[in-house]
Design brief:
- About 0% of the residues have low confidence.
- It is built from 13 helices and 38 strands.
- Helix content is about 20%, strand content about 30%.
- The protein has an 8-stranded mixed sheet, with helices on both faces. The chain has a 4-stranded antiparallel sheet with strand order 1-2-3-4, with no helix packed on it. Strands 5-6-7-8 form a 4-stranded antiparallel sheet, with no helix packed on it.
- The protein has a domain of about 260 residues: Rossmann fold.
- Strand 23 and strand 24 form a beta hairpin.
- It is an alpha+beta fold.
Length: about 700
């Protein structure tokens, strides 16, 4: 008996000691986490190849390698070790080889490589003047389909002289001392790249043995999409490819309209539009295993906030019909089951991203098969489903779905690292928002939360506006990093959020500020009442993009918050006409400068500048083309002119997101320092120097 007591006492002491060793999460920790991605199941469903990205703060760069793990379980095995970035692994149909992309040795761009299944020397198959992307094997295992970009007037017949001329022109453009960008197009840049180089996308069929290729879309003279990427799937018989292409040509006066085209792999005939009736955009095409039909996602029009429904194209009749028209979900990923009887889908639902199963004939509703945290990157082979699972408390790891709706972890790359971190408790809550609607929110408490102590409250406001706060692990706006400063942190899935039905998402059209602001303030009052230890005199509001719009809106509509953080905020309705996606904005802002100036001004945050009082931190990246960075300068200039305490942080080499380690650590420090100065949080790091270390 005494021995048992001694053992229990020892275990208690050990548990306490282990708990005492835990520490709050820091911004540096986000860059120490191994980032698991791109799972691809072997055709025999026995193994999964995937990527693992690792970052170096000191070098300010990452490396990504391929790993392999058995579905039955066991330790993952590293397949590649090059100090570069390997990506997009794809199995050959016989499961003996893995194609992937990499830039290694003397490669000037991302090239196509093939690796034996269980490791060995990777063989370089093809490199072209512009990077290759999205490798997919043909069913016969002899060829691989990839996409690339070209300068249309120079590509010619793809002769060596043509490629040499294209390389020469690329270098000339890069080295030119004349750097002007000139356009007469309505849309002339996208995200952080200009569209003025007049490039075109091409789909290529690459012979793996001969290392030659054939152009499958030789007449395409502009990009498949302005983002520069392409979505496609290869028919089971290998005779055709379903390819998503933008039908809106330069100068892009009209909304972009992506349709699905059928491209013949024999190079004969022109691509055939399978979805010409669609006024919005189609995406995510995937062939049925028997090749008789094609599933895809469709956004019916270009109206913001519309749900993506799942449709099916029947090749025998040429007809398209909806499979989920009666179900109010917006679907992201689509995969066929091996027998073709049903589809595997993902869709946002009330703060989660579950996996659903849907009968191919559309009978019955989508059945939720897994509803924990956030599930992404699903892949299917045989009766096996693998996916990435993450939550607020855990970064993404690879899982396989069990028949009972549970999931088994296949990787645990970050388990030991995360075990040393003292993370705050997260809870889901509901309250009555604008117009009496039920509104969902997440609340995260700081480590060691004590109900008898006073805490500041930080309201994070998500962007989009048509996105959702998920139970997910973020490498940018991480709620645990904010809570580690000693603040209670909340996200609100306010009006306009996705995952709560199409009507709810579209409820803010032409009134961007009103209902979301009311939701945020009602959330604040709800939490202050539910948790009396929250200090109403130590509250802050922070957001980015549309969340930055809300930060500026809050700035002009209340002085209850003692600090505001506006990152990449839509602060001025006029300035947003310079966005890289200019078409939809006038439709959501209540008016246009030339026909309803009053309606537009009513939704313009700067129109309420006379009410600005709250100390505000303004942050922006100069390469932000989604919300041009002069919007940050405008807000900061007004605040300074008014004498409102304010601080400006500009990152010349960052876009809409702060993506490099040292800048991101500095970005976190700026926000934590601002909150420390105005609501008394305790920063989780000291001011970083230029090497990303602390001092």
């Amino acid at each position: 008996m005494n021995s048992l007591r001694l053992i229990v006492a020892f275990l208690v002491v050990a548990a306490v000691a282990f708990a005492a060793e835990k520490r709050p999460i820091t911004p540096q920790d986000l860059w120490a986490i191994k980032r698991v991605g791109s799972p691809s199941l072997s055709p025999d469903a026995k193994e999964v190849v995937f990527t693992v990205q690792e970052w170096s703060i000191e070098k300010n760069k990452s490396t990504t390698n391929l790993w392999l793990v058995a579905v039955a379980g066991g330790e993952p095995r590293r397949l590649t070790t090059a100090a570069t970035s390997d990506s997009a692994p794809a199995w050959s149909p016989d499961g003996t080889r893995i194609a992937f992309l990499s830039k290694r040795g003397d490669d000037e761009t991302n090239a196509l490589y093939v690796l034996p299944r269980h490791g060995g020397e990777a063989e370089k198959i093809l490199e072209l003047p512009y990077a290759l992307a999205t490798p997919k094997w043909m069913p016969d295992g002899k060829s691989i389909v990839v996409q690339t970009k070209v300068i249309p007037e120079l590509v010619g017949q793809w002769a060596k002289a043509d490629l040499a001329a294209m390389k020469k022109e690329i270098k000339r453009r890069k080295d030119s001392k004349m750097t002007a960008k000139v356009t007469e197009n309505r849309q002339y840049r996208y995200w952080d790249a200009w569209l003025t180089d007049n490039l075109a996308s091409r789909l290529l069929l690459v012979d793996v043995t001969a290392k030659t290729f054939r152009d499958l879309t030789p007449k395409r003279d502009y990009l498949f999409s302005n983002a520069g990427d392409a979505a496609f799937d290869i028919a089971p018989d290998g005779k055709s490819i379903a390819l998503v292409m933008n039908t809106t040509r330069p100068p892009f006066r009209d909304d972009n309209n992506a349709d699905i085209y059928l491209v013949s792999t024999d190079g004969k005939g022109d691509p055939r539009n399978l979805t010409p009736e669609g006024k919005g955009s189609e995406s995510a095409p995937v062939f049925a295993p028997d090749g008789k039909s094609l599933a895809f996602a469709r956004t019916p029009t270009t109206t913001a906030g519309e749900s993506r429904r799942v449709w099916r194209h029947d090749f025998a009749t040429g007809k398209n019909r909806p499979l989920t028209a009666q179900h109010d979900w917006s679907f992201d990923e689509i995969k066929f089951s091996a027998d073709g009887a049903h589809l595997w889908l993902t869709a946002e639902e009330k703060g989660l991203l579950p996996i659903f199963r849907l009968a191919l004939d559309g009978s019955g509703p989508p059945i939720p098969m897994f509803k924990e945290g956030t599930a992404t990157a699903i892949d299917v082979a045989g009766r096996t489903v693998v996916f990435l699972k993450e939550s607020t408390h855990r970064p993404a790891e690879l899982f396989t779905l069990n028949g009972d709706g549970s999931a088994k972890a296949l990787t645990r790359f970050n388990e030991a690292f995360m075990a040393q971190l003292d993370l705050g408790k997260q809870e889901s809550y509901w309250f009555k928002g604008a117009q009496g609607a039920d509104i969902h929110g997440w609340i995260v408490f700081p480590p060691g939360y004590d109900a008898d102590k006073k805490y500041p409250l930080v309201q994070l406001m998500h962007g989009g506006p048509h996105t959702m706060n998920r139970d997910a692990f973020s490498y940018r706006w991480n709620t645990q990093v904010f809570a580690a400063t000693g603040a209670v942190v909340t996200w609100v899935n306010r009006h306009g959020s996705t995952g709560f039905g199409e009507k709810f998402a579209q409820s803010i059209l032409n009134e961007w500020g009103d209902k979301p602001f009311e939701d945020i303030m009602r959330s604040t009052d709800f939490l202050l009442k539910k948790y009396p230890n929250l200090d109403p005199d130590r509250m802050a509001a922070a957001g980015a993009s549309y969340g930055g719009y809300m930060a500026a809106w809050v700035l002009g509509h209340t002085d209850r918050f003692k600090a505001i953080i506006d990152h990449a905020g839509v602060n001025n309705s006029y300035a947003q006409y310079g966005s890289d996606v200019p078409h939809g904005f006038p439709k959501v802002m209540g008016g246009k400068p030339w026909d309803n100036l009053e309606g537009m001004q009513r939704q313009n945050p700067l129109f309420y500048a006379k009410n600005f009082k709250t100390p505000t931190l303004v942050i922006h990246g100069e390469l932000d083309y989604r919300v041009p960075y002069y919007q940050g300068l405008e807000l900061y200039g007004i605040l300074q002119a008014m004498g409102v305490p304010s601080r400006l942080v500009v990152y010349p080499n960052e876009n809409h997101w702060i993506l490099t380690p040292q800048n991101a650590i500095h970005w976190h420090w700026e926000m934590q320092d601002w909150l420390a100065r105005h609501i008394g949080v305790k920063p989780a790091l000291e001011k970083p120097n230029f090497d990303g270390e602390t001092r």
